[in-house]
Amino acid sequence: MSSNNFAGKIGAILATAGSAVGLGNVWRFPTETGTHGGAAFLLIYIGFMLLLAAPIMIAELAIGRHGQRDVLYAFKKMNGGRGHWAFMGYLPVVAGILVLSYYAVVAGWTLEYAFRALTNDFFNKTQATFQQDFTTFIADPLRPLFWIFLILALTFGIVALGIQRGIERGAKIMMPILFIFLIVLVVCSLSLPNASRGITFLLNPDFSKVTPHTILSAMGQSFFTLSVGICCLCTYACYFRKDVNLFKDGLTVAIIDTAVAIMSGLVIFPAVYSVPGLTADAGPALVFITLPNVFQYVFGNMPVVAYCASLIFYMLLVMAALTSSISMLEMSSAFFHKEKGMSRPMAALVMSIICMILSIACSLSFGIWNEITILGLGFFDLFDTVVAKILMPIGGFLICIYLGWSVKGDVVFNEVTNNHTLHQPLYPVFMFVIRYFAPTCIFLIFLSGLGILKI
Ligand code: PHE
Question: Is there an atom of ligand 1 within 6 Å of 25 CB?
């Protein structure tokens, strides 16, 4: 099997799951769930995963796997070059650079916190000190840049090694460790005295807290967490073998991703409720301020356990971030490698340098550049908004229109049934979602996200 493809089916699933499972699950999901009232948010989010994000994911997989080269070529090939769809080939280039540039900032924070955990920096500190430490750190003009550089260097190293030796092997090593770490932490967290309050918060819905904003956020989260809409999965699917079952693998990844998000909730909320005075709605700081405090408080009389729990938790975050950042770098590098004839390491290097420069701006927007705003947003928030609120919905919409209306039905059917060798009973539902349901939903979210439609 050529080294341009993932060697095995498991490798393909793990790499795709690696892209999906990331800070979106372990950091963004608890934050969003915490601020939107818990279980009700979780249920709506699961609904969107099933009805929207997972079908679009399968659509991306079908387009990419059909093309077998890169996104630009895939979009030209699948509909026989009709219309002017080749522009979709540039989406992963732009989106990949933008998303990695701000993702690397938070990924860098996770490295700093893994380092702090390793050097036992959390020992005996109080909530106020954790708060102070975090705000000082993210505003620092230099220290976060060092960690961003490191995360980008690691990401570059893996992507430069290639599909099988880099991306696939990286996912095969990191994903199982990630699961083991997560299970250890869930067990620890569930054994805490007030665990049941956290479980109730996560699993017992209170629909009175649901507002239109909750619905929009749940939808945004489902896109972000599955890496859907900006042709990231389409890029990976170009490397899928022709015998991969796209429905089965896509749904497996969606289930793994949701399971990891729920498990992260089961680590974080029982822990948060075990410390008096802490609340689940701490926002983005939950993971960097509240949690180190929780570890110290609940395991205060067992310093070794506190040390191990914090170290395992931040290592988990680092690995989750890395398996996703790899896919982001691959999105843009693949274009220059496959379309422009650059060598893989060269393409990855150029993209990493561009991301490093943009990341500096994103990181400084928490400190000395916080006054600089475009449309009222600092660089970090601007990039996040452009990717999650603009490029992902527009990309998702276009993917649906392309596959649902521009590609011939039998081409789609052949692709998802591996030329009639697989039975796909969900195919009619899938096509209905892709043609009608998803584009309508996304259109409405997009308008309300931009404030044009008021709900
Ligand atoms: N899905 C990733 C996460 O949950 C984020 C991501 C977005 C990765 C877009 C690739 C592309 O962290």
Answer: yes
24: Cα separation from own chain's centroid: 4
Identity at 299, one-letter amino acid code:
F
CA distance 47 to 120: 41
Q: How many CB atoms lie within 10 A of CB 212?
A: 11
Residue bearing tokens 């026989």 = 80
Q: Answer whether 220 contacts ligand 1 (Cβ < 6 A).
A: no
C-beta of 19 in contact with ligand 1 (< 6 A): yes
Question: Please, what is the end-to-end C-alpha distance for the chain in angstroms?
Answer: 52
Within 89-168, residue ranges assigned H as helices are: 91-118, 127-139, 143-161
433 Cα to the center of ligand 1, angstroms: 22
Residue with tokens 């005295």: 193
Closest CA to 415 of 60, 50, 40: 60
| Distance separating alpha carbons of residues 226 and 233, to the nearest angstrom | 9
Looking at CATH, the fold of the domain delimited by 9-449 is given as Hydantoin permease (1.10.4160)
Spatial distance between the Cα atoms of 105 and 362, rounded to a whole number of angstroms? 7
Ligand 1 atom closest to Cα of 99?
9
**Residue 124 token pair:** 């005996």
Nearest Cα to 170, choosing from 18, 24, 329? Answer: 18
pLDDT value at residue 54: 96
pLDDT in tens, 236-268: 999 999 999 999 999 999 999 999 999 999 988
Q: Whose CA is nearest to atom 7 of ligand 1?
A: 227
Spatial CB neighbours of 341, under 8 Å, sequence gap ≥ 6: none
